[in-house]
Amino acid sequence: MSILRMPAVKAETGHRSHASIYNAIKVGLFPKPVPIGQRSVGWPDTEVYAINAARIAGKTDAEIRELVVDLHAKRIEWVAR
Q1: Residue 41: exposed, middle, or buried by beta-carbon count in 10 A (0-12, 13-18, 19+)?
Q2: Residue 81 scores a pLDDT above 90
Q3: What CATH number does residue 28 fall under?
């Protein structure tokens, strides 16, 4: 698993700005970032790819919100190991 920084996330998702990603997070359509330093964050690549796959598959916003909840739950499980 890799951690993608903002430029890579924008490139992978097609978002044009930081704000559009953070707006998607606010409405539950994109996973929250993980801290990777004192002033830096990133996203697990598998989560970004899962969101992209859901969009490509034509999932609804409600289905993507459920996916985001599942991805966050899997983070907690993974850390608890």
Answers
A1: middle
A2: no
A3: 1.10.1660
